[in-house]
């Protein structure tokens, strides 16, 4: 069974950007460490065209959007269960 979760964040004030920080991360990884073929978290900055995909157990670096919109997508194939992930989403002033 495939599971999908899509969360879109939009800050009403265009003066701030979105920062996503992970405190825990453990997802089923793919056949190789560089490809996520099973469970995946994707971080999407709406102002760029390069989504970042994460799986496995390496804690992702903090992710900050360049504008006021971002999205977190989670995909799971349902075959292996792991801890999942814990993330904090905050709105911050751009650097």
Shape: elongated
Along the chain, the helix and strand elements come as: EEEEEEE
Mean pLDDT: 84
Strand order of the largest sheet: 1-6-3-4
Characterize the biggest β-sheet. Answer: 4 strands, antiparallel
- Classify the secondary structure makeup into a structural class: mainly beta
Write the CATH homologous superfamily.
Spermadhesin, CUB domain
Question: Got a strand count?
Answer: 7
At the first level of CATH, the class is: Mainly Beta
Gyration radius, rounded:
14 Å
Q: Number of helical segments?
A: 0
Distance between the termini: 41 Å
Tell me the helix content: under 10%
- Report strand %: over 45%
Q: Can you tell me about this structure?
A:
The mean pLDDT is 84. The protein has 95 residues and is an all-beta fold. It is elongated and about 40 Å long. The chain has strands at 3-10, 17-26, 40-45, 52-54, 63-64, 69-76, 84-92. It has no helices and seven strands. It has one domain (3-90): Sandwich (Jelly Rolls). The strands form two sheets. A four-stranded antiparallel beta sheet has the order 1-6-3-4, with no helix packed on it.
């Amino acid at each position: 069974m495939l599971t999908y979760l899509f969360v879109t964040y939009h800050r009403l004030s265009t003066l701030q950007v979105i920062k996503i920080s992970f405190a825990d991360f453990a997802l089923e990884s793919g056949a190789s460490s560089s490809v996520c073929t099973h469970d995946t978290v994707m971080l999407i900055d709406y102002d760029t065209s390069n989504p970042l995909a994460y799986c496995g157990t390496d804690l992702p670096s903090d992710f900050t959007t360049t504008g006021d919109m971002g999205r977190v997508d989670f995909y799971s194939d349902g075959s292996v269960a792991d801890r999942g992930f814990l993330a904090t989403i905050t709105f911050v002033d751009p650097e």
